From TrEMBL:
Keywords: NAD, Oxidoreductase, Tricarboxylic acid cycle. It comes from the Eukaryota. Gene3D superfamilies: Lactate dehydrogenase/glycoside hydrolase, family 4, C-terminal (3.90.110.10), NAD(P)-binding Rossmann-like Domain (3.40.50.720). This is Malate dehydrogenase, mitochondrial. One of its GO terms (biological process) is tricarboxylic acid cycle. PANTHER family: MALATE AND LACTATE DEHYDROGENASE (PTHR11540), MALATE DEHYDROGENASE, MITOCHONDRIAL (PTHR11540:SF16). Its EC number is 1.1.1.37. The lineage of its organism: Eukaryota, Metazoa, Ecdysozoa, Arthropoda, Hexapoda. One of its GO terms (cellular component) is mitochondrion. The gene is LOC106751893. Residues 17-70 form the Lactate/malate dehydrogenase N-terminal domain.
Length: 242
């Protein structure tokens, strides 16, 4: 068991390389023991580890893209919290879709599609977007007056996502949730947006529809970042997965 300081250091010191190796080994076991399982990855960096998992499963002949997910719910939880706070609403009564990926540069909250919808200026929107994007780094790099740790928040986000998967597995209709998955919605091979789930995983990718000019610009920037991450993963798979 490691201390909290050890945990943070591991995540700050070459997280892609360290966690990619762990992900490779775990997914390799899954491919042999439970190739039909629904796999949801919450370990960071999600933008890289989901493609790593896909690459390993492909090598093992067990890849089913409709069954592999990257959990990004914590970004939506944060977006809903900040939006509710800014508009004087209760967080549990608002909905804010978030697309893109799961990093500061790839997370794109779509406040134009928030429900209930409250009109925001471009400046207000950008302020909220930056709050969502920088929330994780503020927790990992706290000031002297701030507490440390997003562990419980991540656990809540993972529970929320897995609960939706369980509902879909039991054939409950209209189960919709966002996740980072293999996608043709943008030019990035993996992308997060709303999905309709069914008993066997993704039933339909719902895309993200019409957005504002600012949101589309941020999505385009996120896609470039994601493409770079995916290219690095392809190199990792070629060198480290037999």
């Amino acid at each position: 068991m490691t201390s909290h300081e050890d945990f943070v250091q591991v995540h700050l010191c070459r997280p892609s390389q360290v966690n990619a190796v762990i992900c490779r080994d775990v997914i390799n076991i899954c491919a042999g023991i439970c190739p039909d399982a629904l796999i949801a990855i919450v370990t960071n960096p999600v933008d890289s580890l989901v493609p790593v998992a896909a690459g390993v499963l492909k090598k093992r002949g067990a890849y089913r893209p409709e069954k592999l997910f990257g959990i990004c719910q914590i970004d939506q939880m944060r977006a809903e919290h900040f939006y509710a706070e800014a508009t004087g609403q209760e967080p549990e009564k608002v909905y804010v879709p978030v697309v893109g990926g799961h990093s500061e540069a790839t997370t794109v909250p779509l406040f134009s599609k928030a429900r209930p919808n409250v009109s925001l200026t471009a400046e207000e929107t950008m302020t909220l977007i930056n709050l969502v994007r920088k929330a994780a780094s503020k927790i990992v790099h706290p000031t002297k007056t701030e507490s440390v740790g997003a562990t419980f928040s991540m656990a809540t986000a993972a529970l929320h996502f897995v609960h939706h998967l369980c509902r879909a597995v039991h054939d409950e209709p209209h189960v919709i949730i966002s996740a980072y998955v293999e996608s043709t919605v943008t030019k990035s091979g993996f992308f997060s947006n709303e999905l309709l789930l069914g008993p066997h995983g993704i039933k339909e990718n719902l895309g993200y529809g019409k957005v504002t000019k600012l949101e589309q610009q941020l999505i385009d920037e996120a896609v470039v970042k994601l493409q770079g991450e995916i290219k690095m993963v392809e190199d990792f798979i070629a060198k480290n997965v037999k």
